[in-house]
Write a structure and sequence with these properties.
Blueprint (H helix, E strand, L loop, with lengths): L1 E5 L5 E7 L6 E7 L7 H12 L3 E5 L16 H12 L3 H17 L3 E10 L1 H12 L4 E5 L18 E6 L7 H11 L5 E6 L16 H19 L1
Parallel strand pairs: 3-4, 3-5, 5-6, 6-7, 7-8
Antiparallel strand pairs: 1-2, 2-4
């Protein structure tokens, strides 16, 4: 189902909501890639709802093109996705995620605990939710651009897990090393690297999908959520 969320800017945007069979349950914000709220994101939300989470996917591109759905299977969609990404305001995106979290916490189906999980662009935003919000825990899959906000790491007060693809086309080995070096002294940050896999290794159906790495990352993520969301 779709619900409407009020932004901090006297406007509204929509989000897809998936309710588990047993409630109240922990909430989980699924943070989109650069392809919008598409079938891949909805399938992820379905998967987590089946695992017992109230899963919500806010449309973060609503200021540019509300409701847009793109795929990684089309060159035209890739170009459009990068265009949207470059025009995206990260700070307003985080504000929208915080508005989503507030809405989710108030739903009767939600236990009040909320975590986030983001991919690509969403992976960067999951990191920023760790530095700027009170989400109970946050998981980042192959986040792009985290190094630009490492100065915020001292603000992290809740557990953060990073999944890094060692062959990531968009995160160089040098940046990966920088992340590991600068975040290793933060006890709330847990980093996992996956050798020989590229950006998008957990995107089921994507050209760089890797079953073994995706399953390992998923098992680590589930254990993480069970520990911190219950």
């Amino acid at each position: 189902m779709k619900i409407t969320i009020s932004s901090n800017y006297d406007e509204t945007f929509t989000a897809d909501l998936k309710i588990p069979t047993s409630t109240p349950a922990p909430g989980l914000i699924i943070i989109q890639e650069i392809f919008g709220v598409n079938e891949v994101m909805r399938n992820i939300a379905d998967r987590y709802a089946q695992l017992g989470y109230v899963a919500i996917i806010p449309d973060l591109f609503w200021r540019q093109e509300p409701g847009i759905e793109l795929s990684d299977q089309s060159e035209d969609d890739w170009q459009k996705a990068f265009e949207l990404y470059q025009g995206f305001d990260e700070n307003k995106g985080v504000d929208d995620l915080i508005s989503t979290m507030k809405t989710l916490k108030k739903l009767p189906e939600c236990s009040g605990k909320v975590g986030t999980i983001g991919f690509c662009l969403g992976g960067k935003l999951a990191y920023l939710m760790a530095t700027r919000s009170i989400a109970e825990c946050n998981v980042s899959y192959y986040g792009v651009g985290i190094e630009k906000n490492l100065d915020e790491a001292s603000n992290i007060e809740h557990p953060l897990m990073l999944h890094i693809a060692e062959k990531d086309d968009y995160v160089s080995p040098e940046i990966q090393s920088q992340l590991k070096v600068e975040l290793r002294n933060y006890s709330l940050v847990e980093i996992h690297s996956y050798p020989n896999v590229n950006h998008g290794f957990a995107r089921i159906g994507g050209k760089d999908y890797d079953l073994e790495a995706a399953n390992l990352a998923h098992s680590r993520t589930i254990e993480f959520f069970q520990k911190y969301l219950g």
